Automatic annotation (TrEMBL):
Part of the 50S ribosomal subunit. SUPFAM superfamilies: Ribosomal protein L30p/L7e. Residues 4-54 form the Large ribosomal subunit protein uL30-like ferredoxin-like fold domain. GO terms for cellular component: cytosolic large ribosomal subunit. Gene3D superfamilies: Ribosomal protein L30, ferredoxin-like fold domain. It comes from the Bacteria. Pfam families: Ribosomal_L30 (PF00327). Keywords: Ribonucleoprotein, Ribosomal protein. GO terms for molecular function: structural constituent of ribosome. This is Large ribosomal subunit protein uL30. The lineage of its organism: Bacteria, Pseudomonadati, Bacteroidota, Sphingobacteriia, Sphingobacteriales. One of its GO terms (biological process) is translation. Belongs to the universal ribosomal protein uL30 family.
Length: 59
């Protein structure tokens, strides 16, 4: 599978609890923090839910 790099670009303050937990599940907790993960369907779905808070790059 392809790998993607997910970088948090906005804060989770004043966001719903569901969005906060999705960010935690992706491994993100601070602005400008980045993680590299496999692009599985579940990860892609989580990224879609918080796409306004993250930047995504293909690796």
């Amino acid at each position: 599978m392809a790998k993607i790099k997910i970088t948090q670009i906005k804060s989770v303050i004043d966001r719903s609890e569901r969005q906060k937990r999705t960010m935690q599940a992706l491994g993100l907790g601070k602005i400008n923090q980045a993680v590299e993960v496999e692009a599985t369907p579940s990860i892609v779905g989580m990224v879609r839910k918080v796409n306004h808070l993250v930047a995504v790059e293909s690796i």
